[in-house]
Amino acid sequence: MLKAVIFDKDGVLLDLEATWLNSAIAMTHFVASLSGGRHSASAFQQIIGIDETNRSIDPNGLFAAGTSKGQIEAFCAFEPELAPQLTEDAETRKKLRDIFLDERQTTLQQNGTVSNGDVVTPLSALKAAGYRLAVLTNDSETSAIQGCQDIGIFEMMDVVIGFDSGFGHKPEPYGFLEICRRFEITPQEAVMVGDTAADRDVAIAAGAGSFIGVSAHQTAPIALQDCAYLVSDLTSLPEIMIEING
Asked: Regarding beta strands 56-57 and 50-51, do their DSSP bridges make them parallel or antiparallel, or are they unpaired?
């Protein structure tokens, strides 16, 4: 019997492209500048799976499905001369982080926080049905809380865990397991709802009771294509939970 629903944030609760694409673009332009003109920003965008011209994010790419550490490692593998700056120089790393977050703030001021469709209605229904709700994200805990507040769902969340909450990054299962510990349930009594391979791998590694994939793309991410449950948004989630629980 499932008792809890654990959500990824970006791409599930929040619109991924509206939230982070501008930040990713700014990051690649900065990294390109560090190469001294040897490489264009588009070269680094291709590495992490974003497209500035078409304003899109590849759901299978490093930016959508990976971690910031993985992206930096990929940049350095492509251009080894960047490694000392991107991995060892504290000032450069801080500037990269500041550029990324400053662009996020500019996006917020211009567009606000954009939810992935109507999330309030299905989450309200789940809460009314007695489910415990949580967020497990590779974003920071503070940013996740702010995002949930902005779209009116924070009060429905019993737990929010980010990469900096002390339980590692997805696809490591420790954040998922910590949520289950706080809820005093087994992992088999919780479902993971996510849009990337990292989310599905968390569900597998933690022994989750089920996994529900979310993808608004015409072609779903490779990792989600054989999911038993795959939805474009959260509208049908309450009905799916009834079906899973029989």
From this structure: antiparallel
237 with 128, same domain: the answer is yes
Query: Which neighbouring-strand residues pair with 212?
Result: 193
Tens of each residue's pLDDT in the chain, 246 residues: 999 999 999 999 999 999 999 999 999 999 999 999 899 999 999 999 999 999 999 988 999 888 888 999 999 999 999 999 999 999 999 999 999 999 999 999 999 999 999 999 999 999 999 999 999 999 999 999 999 999 999 999 999 999 999 999 999 999 999 999 999 999 999 999 999 999 999 999 999 999 999 998 877 888 898 999 999 999 999 999 999 998
Residues near 9 by Cβ (< 8 Å), separated by ≥ 6?
A: 135, 137, 139, 144, 147, 148
What is the CA angle 171-147-62, rounded to 5?
35
CA 93 to chain centre: 21
Contact 176, 190 (CB under 8 A): yes
Same domain, 71 and 129: no
Residues 203 and 119 in one domain: yes
Domain that holds residue 80: 17-111
